[in-house]
Specification:
binds glutamine; about 475 residues; two-stranded antiparallel sheet; 13 strands; globular
Length: about 475
């Protein structure tokens, strides 16, 4: 049993397809682990007796068709993906008890490809945060050190995979919420090109930035899971899919690959231990044949400021729908309709969400719109152009994923600006809509450090290939406690 659970998802799926492994063993084993989770990584775990209904891929979750591409390897899904009949609360009290009548396209695709729904994972409320401490359902802790945060906002998905209680998981990234928690938990996280994966059924935060992607133990698993969830969807008019199929990465060298190191994102503000791991990884890249040169993204230092206008502006509009009438929670004892709306929102939203609604409403108000929202959109264009210029000389841009290793629970909860700085290196890619992947590059103070590679829009195959080559050279042990 424990043998099957120590396999990567791709290896487990291959053994199922070859007839060497019963997928029921994976289902039962991971279900037991998820049910016993001690990190508050899950908001709901599938009940053994009440398994979700059969998917087109098989007769039941525990016995999908053996030739399904994902081989019956179960998947954990961030709370904000709508899943039919299953609590989908986006980490918020205002959606308490909400069980959607339909399932998000990304999740449906995974089920159809043979990955049954194992569990829903904890997250910052409406994906606003970098530590999963903004969840109405309590914080998630980091499997490497339970006194520390797992990162966020998809911290539950990252912790579940890092702890081995899920073989793989999906999350969403608006400004860093896949890459940063992957970095802090020592696993792989991919934010795809905007539009590669359907947003249909993802409870919206900032619609022009939100993108779904995989959390996995290695790069091969990331390619396999991403390939199954990507694609154009008639239910999401911003989805475009990918120009071709996602290939499993094979590359073991970086001959001819040109890496640019943006000085704006790889110096000031980055912890010394994180920089040391970053520099060591650049040396490895050179040994593999890559050229590594400094590059400039002159507007990248303004990305956080632009992001904290654009994302709250979109959020203030998206979150207007939570009024106590249509979904989830409604405050008791209201005097009249308006009072019901205001009391529901007062009691249902947490402090960070309220802060964003106020910021966003202000930035969009007449008289301030041009000065704030309009200006931020111009900065966004300049950031995008910086990347376009970089692609003239480089295949990928590389940075540390996060400025620090996992920090202590509570360390940044009283200081929103310190919390926002977590995404200093990931937000520029989000604004530009381009893909980024974080892979573990080593340890600092015994905690994982992430290395980010970002490429042009739709360069996922090349990006995964380069990450695969580096991953092989780094040889990171993503779960030292498993062999201990
Ligand atoms: N930490 C950032 C925020 O709080 C990004 C979150 C995300 O990517 N969902 O907005």
């Amino acid at each position: 049993m424990s043998d099957a659970l120590s396999l990567t998802a791709a290896a487990a799926a291959a053994r199922v397809r070859a007839g060497d492994l019963d997928p029921a063993e994976l289902w039962d084993g991971y279900r037991a682990r998820a049910a016993a989770d001690g990190h508050n990584a899950f908001t709901w775990v599938s009940d053994a007796g009440a398994a979700p209904p059969a998917s087109p891929g098989g007769s039941s979750p525990a016995s999908p068709r053996r030739d399904a591409p994902l081989g019956g390897v179960p998947v954990a899904v961030k709370d904000l993906f709508a899943t039919q009949g299953v609590p989908s609360q986006a980490g918020s009290r205002i959606l308490e008890g909400y069980r959607p009548p339909y399932t998000a396209t990304a999740v449906e695709r995974l089920t159809a490809a043979g990955a049954p729904l194992l569990a829903k994972t904890n997250q910052d409320e409406f994906a606003m945060g970098s530590s999963t401490e903004n969840s109405a359902y309590g914080p998630t802790t980091n499997p490497w050190d339970p006194t520390r945060v797992p990162g966020g906002s998809s911290g539950g998905s990252a912790a579940a995979v890092a702890a081995g209680s899920a073989p793989w998981a999906i999350g969403t990234d608006t400004g860093g919420s896949i890459r940063q928690p992957a970095a802090l938990c020592g696993i792989v996280g991919l934010k795809p090109t905007y539009g590669a994966v359907s947003r249909y059924g993802m409870i919206a935060f900032a619609s022009s930035l939100d993108q779904a992607g995989p959390f996995t133990r290695d790069v091969t698993d990331a390619a396999l899971l991403f390939g199954a969830m990507a694609g154009k969807d008639k239910c999401d008019s911003t989805s475009v899919g990918l120009p071709g199929p996602v290939e499993l990465p094979r590359r073991t060298d970086l001959q001819g690959v040109r890496l640019g190191v943006p000085e704006e994102l790889s110096g000031e503000g980055i912890e010394p231990g994180v920089l040391a791991s970053f520099t060591a990884t650049l040396d490895l890249a050179r040994e593999l044949g890559a050229t590594v040169e400094p590059c400039k993204l002159p507007h990248a230092p303004h990305a956080l400021s632009a992001y904290y206008l654009i994302a709250p502006a979109e959020a203030s509009s998206n979150l207007a729908r939570y009024d106590g009438v249509r979904y989830g929670f409604r405050a008791d004892g209201a005097r009249d309709l308006l009072h019901m709306y205001t009391e529901t929102r007062e009691q249902g939203f947490g402090a960070e969400v309220k802060r964003r609604i106020m910021l966003g409403t202000y930035a969009l108000s007449s008289g301030y719109y041009d000065a704030y929202y309009g200006r931020a959109q111009k900065v966004r264009t300049l950031i995008s152009r910086d990347f376009d210029t970089a692609w003239e000389r480089f295949d990928f841009v590389v940075t540390p994923t996060a400025p620090s290793v996992a920090f202590a629970l509570g360390a940044k909860t009283d200081d929103p600006l310190a919390m926002y700085l977590n995404d200093f290196c990931t937000v520029p890619m989000s604004l530009a809509g381009i893909p980024g992947i974080s892979i573990p590059s080593g340890l600092s103070e015994g905690l994982p450090v992430g290395f980010q590679l970002a490429g042009p829009a739709f360069s996922e195959n090349a990006l995964l290939d380069a990450a695969h080559a580096l991953e092989g050279a780094i040889g990171f042990d993503s779960a030292p406690w498993r062999s201990a």
